[in-house]
Design a protein that fits this description.
The complex is a heterodimer of chains A (253) and B (106). Helix content of chain A is 85%, strand content 0%. Chain A is built from 7 helices and no strands. Chain B has a 3-stranded antiparallel sheet. Classes of the chains: A mainly alpha (253), B mainly alpha (106). Chain A binds chain B through residues 6, 20-21, 23-28, 30-32, 34, 48-49, 51-56, 59-60, 63, and chain B through 26-28, 39-45, 47-48, 51, 69-73.
Amino acid sequence: MTSRLHSLLRRVCTDDLWHSIVHPTLADLQHEEQCASSRVRALLAFVAACWGLFKAVSIYGLTLMARDSRQALPSLAIRFLVALFTITFLLAAPYYFSARRIPVVAHALLIPATLTAALPVAVFLAVLLHASARRDCGIHLLRAVLPLALATAVAALVMWMWIVPSSNQAFRVFVYNSLSGQSISSNQLPGGWNERSWTELRSIAADPTHAQAGQARGALRRRYVWSAVTFFAGLIAIPFGLILGRLRGNSRN
Amino acid sequence: MRGTPRLSEKERIVLELLIHASGSKYGLQLVDASRGRLKRGTVYVTLGRMEQKGLIESEQEPAPAGQGGLPRRLYRATGHGIRVLQVYDDMARALAGGREWVMDAQ
């Protein structure tokens, strides 16, 4: 078993990982197996060594991820923020300039909804520009991009589940009050699917007797998918960025 | 890197074990000798980090003759590692002495 594991891992591990962690662990494992008094003890040693190896490789991967992220994150973050600001402005500006008489507060309440579209595009553009400008190999880039993609996906999830529903509802209340000249609260105006938070949707979806349980499940699923899109936008941008970088390099030559 | 050496708890345990054993040890021997303070999953990550810091050095033992086994890696403390541990021990003693002095004064 150990020799099979050895030949498999030798193919997939980097030299550094192999020499610092995998090789010493496998050598120790082989020694333990040779010293084991029974097959059961040898099997137990194999399981313990595999678990130890898994933990060691995970820690090693996290350490590398932290190192690569520390180096790349400032450049990625600046590109991401510039892209996010630009895209949000481009999406929100036409509405603002075409309806200047509407108070700025109403426009501001629509910005969270705009951000849900701007976030995945900004992540994609930031990673694309970063990857095309640097000469890192794929794995370094992946380790640097993963934290940004994860953080933005979490931000998108929070936007979709809580911030967008409440800002949508606040916008509706604002418009209703402005048009009717009344002053009603958010609770008095019934909201649609886009104005319901994660908590409300979950409670409807969990109730099998509720007539709209299926629709609530569908709405929740859509929001999860859109949050995941933000994460995958960062990952998908890596190969495109690398190709773009290579093309730019070729055109310079 | 060697200007301000930092020693984590695990690194201190590894250095103590290597120095007091007055010789080289395998990773698994360190785990056994530490009585649960070092784990299999973290010992090689710690040893790799310490090697980068220059606190320890390692060499691969010659492959056993006639057996097709993997050669094991032996670790030993460097002079720098020994000095760093001495400084940490002195510092710990000084701090403990200072604490006693303050308690006596009170």
